[in-house]
Design a protein that fits this description.
The chain has 397 residues and is of the alpha/beta class. The chain has helices spanning 4-9, 15-30, 49-61, 64-68, 77-91, 105-117, 134-139, 159-165, 188-205, 266-280, 287-295, 304-319, 342-350, 376-394; strands at residues 36-37, 100-103, 123-127, 144-148, 170-176, 210-214, 237-242, 255-259, 332-333, 354-355, 357-358, 368-371. The strands form three sheets. A seven-stranded mixed sheet has the order 2-8-7-6-5-3-4, sandwiched between helices. A three-stranded antiparallel sheet has the order 9-12-11.
């Protein structure tokens, strides 16, 4: 007998991936340059020279066993130490390499973090709008993901609902700032209030409540928005990071968990991750990629194009009458659709070769996401199609 759960999941594929596949197929018909594909959050700028040069040096000058051999189960010690030092310089933390666990991107980091601090039957809270893959990340561990309804006015935290849902069964809270899909960055006030409520409830219930912070967009900030490091606000924080966006290397699948040194049993949690890997087949990220990111640990790609694209789209969307919270970071924008059913709205948009993602799977029906990690020239060429769509279907000018 095959596993029924995974067979059932075949009927619920990622909407984002399905739209991306449609865009690719449509591109074969009319030329992909004529498909305005805002579906997939795939970085559109090249990796920085420091990372590319590090890869070439490692391949041509380094010991092949070090570059191509297995890494230690917790990650390469020198890499972990460089990451810790970088976080300490940037955010005033006091990590050592013993607080870092290398993972296959932020997804791998979350997979380990959840298993560290929950057991089957526990609850994990997250806030809408949220990345849809959180459901399999959490639910397949045996814990249960529960979604706090959105604050659709600002896309900060809906604290009234959070207070009601933060019950004794909750062992972890999963946040994502800067946020996919809204582009919102949590404010200092939001993080302080969140930490205060969690601390009060942890004391009341007599057990830790961990904060799992999903941070792959940490460096993509706009307009002078302050870069706030979540672990500075709450001791029991596990930061889950990926270099996919900052270095534009999503296919390399490299990230880490940084366990706040002030967290209870911090180093034990990192060591537990090595044991969790044995059960989920993680078995260490690629050695050469660990070594390369260590050489580029304080670098980023040229991320400025994302702010340029955001401003173009925000100006156009609001000018056409869309209600939209202006993003403070990421490469996503999340406007309210022009009709109640965003799925119908996005289906109509396909007739104009605009590929938009309905917000239902993000926990926000009635909204839609645009991933504007595409060339600015293509963003600008998409505007006439957007205007025609709105004017033809909704009579707005």
């Amino acid at each position: 007998m095959i596993a029924a759960k995974y067979k059932e999941m075949l009927g619920a594929k990622s909407v984002i991936r399905e739209l991306s596949e449609y865009a690719t197929a449509r591109g074969k018909e009319i030329g992909y340059e004529n498909v305005f594909d805002y579906s997939l959050g795939n970085p559109s700028v090249p990796a920085p020279e420091g990372f590319k040069n590090a890869m070439m040096r490692l391949l041509t000058e380094s010991d092949p066993m070090a570059v191509h051999g297995y890494s230690p189960s917790l990650g390469i010690p020198s890499v972990k130490e460089k990451i810790a030092q970088s976080l300490n310089r940037r955010f005033g933390m006091d990590y050592t390499g013993n607080h870092i666990f290398m993972t296959s991107g932020a997804a791998g980091a979350i997979a380990h973090a959840v298993r560290c601090v929950t057991v089957p039957g526990d609850e994990v809270l997250t806030f809408a709008p949220f990345f849809p893959e959180y459901h399999p990340y959490i639910d397949l561990t045996g814990a249960k993901l529960k979604v706090v309804p959105a604050d659709t006015e600002h896309f900060q935290v809906n604290f009234d609902c959070f207070g009601e849902m933060l019950t004794e069964k909750v062992m972890a809270v999963l946040i994502n700032t800067p946020n996919n899909p809204s582009g919102t960055v949590y404010t200092k006030e939001t993080l302080e209030r969140l930490a205060r409520m969690m601390s009060e409830k942890a004391e009341e219930y007599g057990h830790e409540i961990y904060l799992i912070s999903d941070e792959p967009y940490r460096e993509i900030l706009f307009g002078g928005v302050e870069e706030l490091y979540v672990s500075k606000f709450y001791d029991n924080t596990l930061s889950c990071y990926s270099y996919s966006k900052s270095l534009s290397i999503p296919g390399e699948r490299i990230g880490y968990i940084a366990v706040n040194p002030a967290c209870r049993d911090a180093e034990t949690l990192v060591n537990m991750c090595g044991q969790i890997s044995r059960g989920i087949g993680h078995n260490c990220p690629t050695s050469i990629i660990q070594l390369a990111v260590a050489e580029a640990v304080d670098e980023t790609s040229d991320l400025s194009v994302y702010e340029t694209n955001m401003n173009i789209l925000y100006r156009e969307l609001t000018g056409l009458g869309f209600t939209c919270v202006k993003p403070g970071g990421t490469f996503y924008i999340f406007p309210k659709a022009l009709e109640e059913d965003a799925k119908v709205f996005c289906q109509k948009a396909k007739n104009y070769d605009l590929i938009l993602v309905p917000g239902d799977s993000f926990g926000c029906p009635g909204f839609f996401r645009m991933a504007y990690c595409i060339d600015t020239e293509k963003v600008e060429r998409s505007l006439p199609a957007l205007r025609k769509f709105v004017e033809t279907e909704y009579g707005l000018q």
